[in-house]
Amino acid sequence: MSGPTKKVVDVAFKASRNIDWDGMAKLLVTEEARKEFATLRRAFNEVNTTLQTKFSQEPEPIDWEYYRKGIGSRLVDLYKESYDSIEIPKYVDTVTPLYKPKFDSLLVELKEAEEKSFKESERLEKEIVEVQELKKKISTMTANEYFEKHPELKKKFDDEIRNDYWGY
User: Which residues lie in coiled coils (predicted)?
Assistant: First the structure.
């Protein structure tokens, strides 16, 4: 194997070793996400297997002497000459330059979404702690204690009372 094909196979193999599939699977919440993730993992493994088997093997060299003994040298020499004259085209990657910028921009969006997700998770964790504290104290809490934590509700209720709006 030579050139770009070997490089692609090596990169794919290294990438497959670095992916923590089980760790990512633990982060999934919905059943639909788990199904999509399993499909992605299966597709990745199929492509990786194809790359490692189909493109990583060098073709066996032709034993021209073996054929000369059985067929005759004139015919074998004719085939060998034709075989040697075949020029195998080199692979020119025209796809990567088109999709590399798109992929890079998606990575940037992914990082931004990840940061937003972490911030939202922190906010939700704080809110969960507040709700749990409120749940513990709710049976003994007075309205004034509740309004101290939620002044916007006190303002809303005061406005409703002041404007004589009783909800009906």
Answer: 107-144
